[in-house]
Amino acid sequence: MTHSAVRPTPASPTPPGGHLLEVRDLHVEFRTGEGVAKVINGVSYHLDAGETLAVLGESGSGKSVTAQAIMGILDTPPAHVRSGQILYQGRDLLKQSEEQRRQVRGKEIAMIFQDALSALNPVFPVGWQIGETLRQREGMSRADARARSVELMDLVGIPAAAKRLGDYPHQFSGGMRQRVMIAMALALNPKVLIADEPTTALDVTVQAQIMDLLTGLRRELDMAMILITHDLGVVAGVADRIAVMYAGRIVEHADVRSLYRAPAHPYTKGLLESIPRLDMRGQALSTIKGLPPNLMRIPSGCPFHPRCPYVQQVCVDVVPHDLVLGDGRTSACHFAQEVHDDSAR
Amino acid sequence: MTAPASPAKVRGETILAVDNLVKHFPISTGVLFQRRVGAVKAVDGVSFELRRGETLGVVGESGCGKSTLARMLMRLETPTSGRATLEGRDLFRASGSELRRLRRNMQMVMQDPYTSLNPRMTVGDIIGEPFDIHPDAAPKGSKSKRVQELLDVVGLNPEHINRYPHQFSGGQRQRIGIARALALRPEIIVCDEPVSALDVSIQAQVINLLEQLQDEFGLSYIFIAHDLSVVRHICDRVAVMYLGKIVEIGTEDEIYERATHPYTQALLSAVPVPDPDARTDRTIIRLTGDVPSPADPPSGCRFRTRCWKAQEVCAREEPHAVPRAADPHPSACHFAELRPTTH
Question: Is the entire prediction scored with pTM above 0.90?
Answer without folding.
Answer: no
